Amino acid sequence: MAVIVGGIATTHVPAIGKAIAEKKHNDPYWKPFFKGFDYVHYWLARTKPDVAVVFYNDHGLNFFLDKLPTFAVGAAMEYRSEDEGWGIPVSRPIPGDPALSWHLINTLVADEFDVTMCQDMLIDHAVTIPMALIWPGPTSSAKSWPVKIVPIEINTVQHPLPTLARCLKLGRSIGRAIETYEQNLRVVMVGTGGLSHQLDGTRAGFINKEFDKLCLEKIVTEPEALTRYSIHDWVEQSGSQGVEFLNWMAMRGALTGRVSELNRNYHIPISNTAAATVVYDNQKESERKAA
Amino acid sequence: MQQDIPGTTIFDGAEAQKGLALNRMCFSFNNAENRVAFLKDEDAYCRKYSLNDEQRAAVKSHNVLKMIEAGGNVYYLAKLAGIFGLNVQDIGAQQTGMSVEAFKSKLLSAGA
Q1: Residues 6 or more apart from A241 whose CB is under 8 A from it?
Q2: Exposed/middle/buried for residue A114 (C-beta within 10 Å: 0-12, 13-18, 19+)
Q3: Are A12 and A56 a contacting pair, CB within 8 Å?
Q4: How much is the pLDDT for A203?
Q5: Which of A31, A84, A253, B46 is the most buried (most CB within 10 A)?
Q6: How many domains does one find in chain A?
Q7: What single string gives the DSSP state of each residue in A65-94?
Q8: Who among A64, A198, A272 is closest to B27 (CB)?
């Protein structure tokens, strides 16, 4: 049976793509952010996942406002990226796992999540930058990707957005789906974006360190507590684009075992954003007792 | 009725409807040839995407707050701002009426 080895979440600011291309990892501005990935790499070398389920939001590459799904699940053999218009390098294609995608889609729809099913889906920087940060090898060399992905897209652009509670439940449905998948796969959940930031309006540059810290605590111990915030509250507390935290909520929901924080890196600012990178362990009760 | 959040436009159905033409034009800037075509003849390109007068004036002024008032969504506007050589710190500074250096200092101080 498939197992969920844990979760990773990270900011996906486009400027990171440029910094990677220009090898600025040790530059004083960037070092405090990139060093947060030392633990991620150490942990992955030990846990060796085969597949990453990546919760992210599209920024106008695959989807436009003319037809915009609330939740969309990739079911492609391979995911390509393309020019997004702001000059970040285009990533190499990343292999998909269509059999797992369809299993997740079947379970989600049975669970009354009526998702959009995408056999073609361009992935934007919200997938490619976290992938390059988490698995830097294939970005900098001809190495093949050590994981396949299933990208799950959540609308964070066009209001009304799904609620925090809905995204947590979406994650839970995916967590249950993976636990009933009969392949021996090791799966890591990835959530991208956030934390507090706002690009638009006279409130541009808004960052809320205290609220971010609260989110980083509660998402581990008591994610339900965060569902009391409406999307409007979230924009107020975390900024217009702080709503990308919905991707984190879905990732957290998919961690169905006993969850603990293994690592956290929080740094202000990267571009206009409060940047965060976390690694969560997900231990099944049965495994814990056996250990 | 929810309280407005100062300095913030919630990009809801009304905004999306108002901004569809402008955002559609910005969406086209994912393509490098389209970016070149826009720079070559801005008027013709804006006409092709049926921008209304308010949207056309906002684009011409390079003023992001005016583009938002005209229904622009910042994820799409960022693609247009890139053509003008403006990154998110530049547009942050422009919208808040600060110098770019002052805007960057404000971001740094948020971490203190």
Answers
A1: A156, A193, A194, A197, A198, A199, A273, B74
A2: exposed
A3: yes
A4: 98
A5: A253
A6: 1
A7: TTS--SEEEE--SEE-----SS-PPPPPPE
A8: A64
Question: Of A125, A159, A232, A267, which one is the catalytic site residue?
Answer: A125
Ordered per-residue pLDDT tens for chain B, 112 residues: 578 999 999 999 999 999 999 999 999 999 999 999 999 999 999 999 999 999 999 999 999 999 999 999 999 999 999 999 999 999 999 999 999 999 999 999 999 8
The CATH number for A29's domain is 3.40.830.10
CB contact under 8 A, B10 and A159: yes
Tell me, rounded to whole angstroms, the distance of Cα A139 from its chain centroid.
18
**Virtual torsion, Cα A213, A215, A220, A222, nearest 10 deg:** 120
Q: Is residue A196 part of a domain?
A: yes
A273 is a domain residue: no
In a domain, A283, yes or no: no
* B24/A205 Cβ within 8 A: no
Q: Which of A12, A59, A103, A197 is catalytic?
A: A197
Which of A232, A236, A268 lies nearest to residue B110, judging by beta carbons? A268
Straight-line distance from the first to the last Cα atom of chain A, in angstroms, rounded to the nearest whole number: 19
Residue A177 domain boundaries: 3-208+221-258
Q: What is the mean pLDDT of each run of 10 residues along chain A (291 residues)?
A: 97 95 96 98 98 98 98 98 88 96 98 98 98 88 90 98 98 97 97 97 98 98 98 98 98 97 98 98 74 51
pTM of the model: 0.97
Superfamily of domain B13-85: Dioxygenase LigAB, LigA subunit (1.10.700.10)
